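Memo to structure team: turn this sequence into structure tokens by end of day. - J.P.
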Amino acid sequence: MVAALFSYRRGASFLHRTNAGLKIIFLFAFSVFVFWGKTPESAKEIFGGQTIARTALCFAASAALFFLAGANWKSLAALRFVLILGLMVAALKIVGSPAASWADGASYALLYSVRFFTSALAAQCVFETTTMVQIQEALRLPLFVTLAINFIPQIFNEWEKIKLAARARTSAKARKNPIRAAAIFFSQLEALLSAMLQKAETTRRAAANRRGF
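Reply from structure team:
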């Protein structure tokens, strides 16, 4: 079973024992550094020495976090959506900019995908080794902010369940039909919204009951 994105995983790794506040501050600074500055758009700029060196450094830091978090290889499968995002970025880059060549569009999408994967992997390592209670206590966050952060892994978890349920009830022929596939996708979004609203109301009532005692 694929691990839910950004969900907590029990363990005794080095990152599990690291202060939650330090991890969150590092993640914020690291994510800003990954995307900081003007993004090169041509293949020549993207494969220049400075861009390659910076990207390699960030990727190495993210990989180090992965091993410090206990190297949970199953969690990497939760990041497969980055590949789909890269293809979408390439298509938008080529279609939206007539002057951009196929090489420039593909290079831009590759750089964006690597950067996004690097920051997403770092976030995965931080959140799977840190509970919401630890984050609240370390950063002194209000309850509603902690609950909002807690909904991030729940959204991805519910989406995976809905997709599996839809796949089990839909034939392969229907999924290949563009119109039918779009209808299935929007029905999945509707189901996700309903499920998250229900969870939000349940959480709100639980928090209200706790304040009543």
